[in-house]
């Protein structure tokens, strides 16, 4: 097997993306979610505490009612309070999760990745994946993350321990305040560690993904041939296309009203019939050998051939096939048409 030394081509990257194979860091998404949720807890700590108190004390408001009515009232009240408490967290998870995915890989619709595959339930394949290099890296990375975060959290909690010890004697209301202070102390260090690990993981995932897509020179050549076709076939197609265009130009020259020439370098076939075409129409254009073939074909069909070097050059440069003559050439073309009509009226054509 050839050594894979070539960078992946855009097609290889595009095909991998369509299969859902992208450089994606789960740690980056986790970091975004963790920091966002901790930030929300810090900013809305007082409100969340009140909502939790309301949720826990909700049954007390229905003690005076009969059991069935109280049960229905408690269920309705607690459902409302629970939704008010949980809805922001759910929205944060959805919005931040989608945003982090888009930031990493953009919008990817990989339907092929969702198709059922025998490899996904194959025990041999799954066992092989368990001991793969990727999973080993993931294990080491998770171990480092747990150790670093554990050290950071332990250091912060240890420094806050004197205050935490006195909480039981400070009353229930102080628990929320102390929790908010502790969360604020944890937010920046944990956020920094999370994003440091996530940034390193994202770089690793992109490097690993690019390495997996590396190609051998044979694969690059094969892909190029598949996309562009074999050079001989491609040249043959171009040659056939050119011949078809030339044959069409020669055929059109035979039905032209006049052929304006250079005399040998350029040939422009013009078509004009009074009351049928508002302006002379360019039927065909030819250069060098094609121009000579157009001249020969027009001569065989008795099409007038008018030598006009400036006009032929101008029509070649400015005019387009199947289009009316440029407005800048109306006067000289009209003079050529007038000469042709006079020659026809005099019986010289």
UniProtKB/TrEMBL annotation:
Location(s), subcellular: Cell membrane
SUPFAM superfamilies per record: EscU C-terminal domain-like
Alphabetical list of Pfam families matching this protein: Bac_export_2 (PF01312)
Region (Disordered), start-end ranges: 1-21
Broad class of the protein's primary localization: membrane
Protein origin, superkingdom: Bacteria
GO BP term (any one): protein secretion
Residue spans crossing the bilayer: 82-111, 136-157, 177-204
Record key words, sorted: Cell membrane, Membrane, Transmembrane, Transmembrane helix, Virulence
A cellular component annotation (GO) from this entry: plasma membrane
Membrane topology: Multi-pass membrane protein
PANTHER family, per the entry: FLAGELLAR BIOSYNTHETIC PROTEIN FLHB, SURFACE PRESENTATION OF ANTIGENS PROTEIN SPAS
Family the UniProt entry places it in: Belongs to the type III secretion exporter family.
NCBIfam families hit by this protein: FlhB_rel_III
Protein name: Yop proteins translocation protein U
Gene designation: yscU_2
């Amino acid at each position: 097997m050839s050594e894979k030394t070539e960078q992946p081509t855009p097609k290889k990257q595009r095909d991998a993306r369509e299969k859902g194979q992208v450089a994606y860091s789960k740690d980056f998404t986790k970091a975004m979610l963790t920091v966002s949720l901790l930030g929300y807890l810090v900013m809305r700590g007082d409100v969340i505490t009140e909502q939790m108190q309301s949720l826990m004390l909700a049954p007390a408001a229905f003690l005076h009612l009969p059991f069935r009515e109280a049960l229905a009232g408690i269920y309705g009240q607690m459902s409302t309070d629970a939704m008010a408490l949980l809805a922001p967290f759910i929205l944060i998870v959805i919005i931040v999760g989608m945003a982090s995915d888009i930031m990493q890989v953009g919008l990817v619709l990989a339907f092929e990745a969702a198709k059922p595959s025998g490899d996904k339930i194959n025990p041999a394949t799954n066992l092989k994946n368990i001991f793969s290099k990727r999973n080993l890296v993931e294990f080491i990375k998770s171990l480092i993350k747990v150790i670093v975060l554990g050290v950071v959290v332990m250091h912060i909690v240890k420094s806050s321990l004197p205050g935490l010890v006195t909480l039981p004697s400070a009353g229930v209301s102080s628990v929320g305040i102390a929790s908010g202070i502790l969360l604020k102390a944890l937010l920046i260090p944990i956020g920094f560690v999370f994003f440091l690990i996530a940034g390193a993981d994202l770089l690793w995932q992109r490097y690993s993904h690019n390495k997996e897509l590396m190609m051998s020179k044979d694969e690059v050549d094969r892909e190029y041939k598949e996309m562009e076709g074999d050079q001989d076939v491609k040249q043959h197609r171009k040659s056939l296309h050119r011949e078809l265009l030339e044959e069409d130009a020669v055929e059109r020259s035979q039905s032209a009203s006049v052929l304006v020439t250079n005399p040998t370098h350029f040939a422009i076939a013009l078509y004009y019939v009074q009351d049928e075409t508002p302006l002379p129409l360019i039927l065909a254009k030819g250069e060098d050998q094609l121009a000579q073939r157009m001249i020969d074909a027009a001569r065989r069909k008795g099409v007038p051939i008018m030598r006009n070097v400036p006009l032929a050059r101008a029509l070649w440069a400015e005019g387009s096939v199947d289009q009316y003559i440029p407005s800048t050439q109306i006067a000289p073309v009209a003079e050529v048409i007038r000469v042709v009509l006079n020659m026809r009226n005099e019986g010289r054509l």
